[in-house]
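Hi X.,

You mentioned you wanted examples for the new student's onboarding notes, showing what a folding record looks like when two proteins sit in one file. Here is a clean example. The first protein comes first, with its sequence line followed by its structure tokens.
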Amino acid sequence: MAFQFESPYSAQTERRMKNVFQSLSEKERRRYAAIETVKLGRGGLRYMAELLGCSEHAIRHGIRELDSLPHDELGDRQRAPGGGRKPKIEQQPEIEDQLFEIVDVHIAGSPDEPDIVWTHLSPQAIAETLHQNGASISAPTVADWLAENDIRRRKIEKSIAGGQSPDRNAQFEQIARLREEFEDSGDPIFSIDTKAKEQLGTMYRAGRAYCNHPQKAFDHDYPSWSDGVLIPHGIYDMARNHGHLNLGLSHDTSEFACASFWWYWRRIGRFHYPDASRILWLCDGGGSNSSRHWIFKQDLSQLADRIGLPIHVAHYPPYCSKYNPIERRFFSHVGRTCRGLLLRSAKFAAELMRKTTTTTGLSTTAHILRGAFELKRKATQEFMDRMPIHFSDLLPRLNYTAVPG
């Protein structure tokens, strides 16, 4: 008489066993099925496979794993390396040939860099093209194949310098000498620059911020729709790790830059450096503190007269403004603080920027510097004749001192 296995469990118990089985991970499922099979003895293997909906092979695998416990070779893995279903591209090599053909037709490259190629097709578009050719494959599988062939989404890398200054190394060495000299004497060193202009009002700003509802902004960035322009002039005290922003509402001119420092020195700087005998400015070579414009030197001379201290200026070489310390030590953190928030008014912007801090001790102050600053001013003939600027023997166009009269 043929052997016939009878279920030892009630219908309710079998249902509970199925529910437990479904709640487990892959590794736990086969081991649970294995221990139940071992308990049942003869006929239990087929019964558990049918009850739980798994293969007899998986249960046998689980029994072998039970014999090796408590030592678990898999650890946190669900399967041994190489286990599981093989990718469809490996099962059907002809699909990979079709993938190469599709990508090759829709690929472009750089005439200067033959190793760089790109395609305008998305994984979904490639999968649909394959489907039209009679091959069924999913977009995620195509994405994995692209990644394996080192074709993935990348953003453009800003790494090519706009030019090369012949005085680059010499000026960097000069700046290093000046910094060491001023640090040894205890005189202040300030990194100076103007941050990118900001549109005030309901104007879109890039980035994300934590909030319970998205902020609403205009669907176009027309300047005429803004409530004005904010010009953040930054002064970074390198010794104190303190940044100050004067927020202008007019124009980014040399007069504005010097007025900004005058406000800062009168209200903040002089109290921290009561014994200063001179001041060092580190700045790039363009904008409101251009190394080429005489009007900046005239305004700088007037600033030195008001402060009563010599102001040494060292410009970073052309194409090297990113090395100005204020860029990475201060402006980058201010940008992080303001990211994704609408600057509805200058007052709100100042309050927001004052919150800029870092774990390394950066502190920030901000002030709205009102007043109109004219464009297209030129140095006076009287200043040119008197020339109270002392130029350095080394790279004089990048290094000079405004001496108070």
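Then the second protein repeats the pattern, sequence line and then tokens:
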Amino acid sequence: MNNLPVVRSPWRIVILLLGFTFLYAPMLMLVIYSFNSSKLVTVWAGWSTRWYGELLRDDAMMSAVGLSLTIAACAATAAAILGTIAAVVLVRFGRFRGSNGFAFMITAPLVMPDVITGLSLLLLFVALAHAIGWPADRGMLTIWLAHVTFCTAYVAVVISSRLRELDRSIEEAAMDLGATPLKCFLSLRYR
């Protein structure tokens, strides 16, 4: 238990409200102005859903949305698989030669700014294209690889923390009763 005295100050509430206002007021204004019927963002001309209709009729924009959703679904699937494997390796195999380096490489995208990660991957793809001719062009595949790179780190950290909390004796009891290691993993981990 924490035995420190709790100080209730009216300034705490004011600071909290100012912080939330600072964070959420721009988003609220963006949503409100998205219903503006004027072509100019700064001039309010009344409520309208005209721009949402224009957005839905724009084939290039809808194609871009479809491509983004495809990349997101594929990247999330691949990151879930790779992150789970990485988490199992980090937790179940314990200390092995290179385990610190492996853990660092898995979690590095979490501590690096996204711009640095993106620029590094772009430079990697350009260098690979010059050295071995792959990838021939930067497109959906390279975007997918970049997304998988930084999504895998989040999955690995979350799943490894959950794996550390689980009681190994339950897994051992299930295997003693005849369950295969894969069956134990799937039935105990995802409940």
